[in-house]
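Quick one:
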Amino acid sequence: MKIGVAGITSRRGLIAACVLAGLAFAGVSAYWLGGGMSSRRFVEYAMTQPRDMPTAIAAAPDGTIWFTMDLARAMGRVRNGRLERLPTTNDNIEPIGLGVTADGSAWYTDSGARGISRMTSSGAIDSFPLDTPIVRLGRLAVAPDGAVWFAEATGYSITRLKDGKIARHVFNSPRGEPYGVAVAPDGTAWATLKSGDQLIRIAPDGEMTAFEVPRHAAMPSDTAVGPDGAIWFIESRENRVARFKNGAFEEFKVAGESPVLTGLAVTPNGDVWFAMLRSGSLGRLRDGRIESFKLPRDGARPASLAVDHDGNVWYADISGYVGMLSARYARE
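Output:
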């Protein structure tokens, strides 16, 4: 259904506790699930600590998969087929923002440090504190020029960090709660306002434009830029995936009772991937048709998605796993 004009959900309550020391390598490699063609679709890595809760996930250009863990004093990654835990300086709280740069460093929202932090491939950390006594942050994206954009609810802004300098883009909506952030190849930033039911565009010159989403109280959340320039986002309260292009909206309803849509990734061929946390599945939207891919475990809870350069679809599962749907089956 096409609608002629221009919503987010947060995942409060991701609870885990973990105190880490040193760099630990997992003793268990990923396992292929046997028993037929459909079961060979997934490979999963179980966390080595029982309370580790993968939250956000991102794919680096070299194929390394980074992920954050809620209330854990560590970052995680999968590199060369092995799971690694890298220590951080503090417990993080709802680290739902994560992005990687061309050199393989991982930027992440770090509420424990009241700011944004960067971890290099060697495990070194730099932190950039914000100037508010309380910090509440949403998603994060790395722009082509290396700038880091993130949703800053406590600053009532979509915020840019580059060369150590913070620049806030404060929106005018009386409601707000920014959440999703994405950056187009030309440097244009896009964001969603959860309670404001708006899609925000920030041009490279800083000019801001707000678009009202089609449905009142739709709660738009994650957002991504497609290869054709279309802006995709989740209408979490409506269980819909929506697209904004050329000034018009188009929506796609996801079947099921309250599947809880979260995470969003668009592949170079235009496939739109999202997680269905409550139903333990991944969803794919292609040519207007939605298909679901059930994860291999009962109780699976995928919360974020990323697609690597080979086309494998990775997910952070808050039940204690990082997993991958292989490119071969993702493309079918």
